[in-house]
Amino acid sequence: MSERFGRDEALALLQEWTKGESLRKHGIAVSVCTEAYGRMEAARLGLAGAEAEAFVEPYACAGLLHDMDYERHPSLEEHPFVGVTHLRELGWPETVLQAILAHADYSGVARASHLEKALFACDELAGFLTACALVKPSKSINDVEVAGVKKKMKDKAFARAVKREDITGGAELLGVPLEEHLGNCLQAMQARAGCLGLEGSPVI
User: Sorted alphabetically, which Pfam families does this protein's record hold (predicted)?
Assistant: First the structure.
């Protein structure tokens, strides 16, 4: 990807289009999880160093940008189409744009590439893991465990807006067992707890 289209530019666009703190944090969380899958895929392909970093960049960017237009254009008619149109005008690579379109079930864009599958698989899960962290007394992602996440997934009243079928379907798309998928994203978010605002505080 061109230097004009890296994660710094993606983050700046997210901040420009999205003023709400929780939606900004959601974009960062999805980016962190999607990037983790990009790193796994780069390793599987035998990429290292600068080559691996270049491979991973679109994953991080797609995560940051997937909901950038949602605050201004939340309707099914407009999201994510308005954002993608703007990104296309700026010259962003089609690989990133296709992934953003494919994360919306109603866009008609199939999830074919690994990036497209990873973004879809991480979107709802990142939100769910955030919710799991925020109900902890410490409000820390570091206190969340996979077993607890699985239990919360069965509780329909908890984070009811999160589509459980997208989490399970995303794991299937990636060919990863559900428990492993939950662990992969949880680990990625724990490693970046600070930038997600989920490091929490000690419980006295």
Answer: HD
Provide, for the chain, the percentages of residues in helix, strand and coil under a 3-state DSSP scheme, each rounded to the nearest 5.
70, 0, 30
Selection from 57, 52, 54 nearest residue 41 by Cα: 52
d(CA 91, CA 59): 17
Rounded Cα distance, 26 and 67, in Å: 9
65-109 confidence digits (pLDDT tens): 999 999 999 999 999 999 999 999 999 999 999 999 999 989 889
Q: Could you give the angle at the alpha carbon of 115 between the alpha carbons of 112 and 120, nearest 5°?
A: 80
Q: 10 Å Cβ neighbour count for 22?
A: 11
What pTM was estimated for this model as a whole? 0.94
Go through the domains of the chain in sequence order and give each one's CATH number. 3-196 (1.10.3210)
- DSSP SS3 for 201: coil
Beta carbons within 8 Å of 72's beta carbon, 6+ residues apart: 17, 82
The C-alpha atoms of residue 90 and residue 87 are separated, in whole angstroms, by: 5
Local structure of residue 196 (DSSP, 8 states): H
Q: In the numeric block, which tokens belong to residue 51?
A: 């080559």
